[in-house]
Write a structure and sequence with these properties.
elongated; 4 helices; mainly alpha
Length: 125
């Protein structure tokens, strides 16, 4: 079996770099994408700042919730079951504080349960 030519170290062709094309790709293709993604990241950061500062919510918890919203329902249910099991076995949970007592908060489950939704059939036209 013949050995594959893997470059100049084995006597193969030395390909001259196409710097002009590389610069065109960087300026025409990559830079606009980076600028768009920077704007999107800035917009996202502004949204997270509103959630944290104006809504007074824990930003990390809100980001985790955002991930859960986009997750497949079956994966989300599995995630919740695993999280609940880990919390039960480890003894971690929410510590009742004076605010809970003042608001009369009952011992609600950390992860609420819900009835499964009935799948809807798509109409084909």
């Amino acid at each position: 079996m013949a050995k594959k030519d893997d470059g100049p170290q084995n006597g193969g062709e030395i390909i001259k770099p196409d710097f002009e094309r590389a610069i065109k790709v960087i300026t025409n293709d990559l830079n606009p994408l980076l600028e768009k993604s920077a704007k999107v990241r800035g917009d996202q950061a502004a949204g997270w700042k509103v959630i944290e500062d104006d809504c007074h919510c824990n930003k990390k918890a809100a980001k985790d919730f955002h991930k859960l919203l986009r997750m497949d329902p079956e994966l989300r249910d599995d995630y919740f079951r695993t999280l609940r099991g880990l919390l039960d076995v480890s003894g971690l949970g929410i510590t009742r504080d004076l605010v809970d007592e003042a608001e009369g908060a009952d011992n609600e489950p950390i992860i609420p349960t819900k009835e499964p939704t009935r799948p809807e059939l798509a109409t084909v036209q």
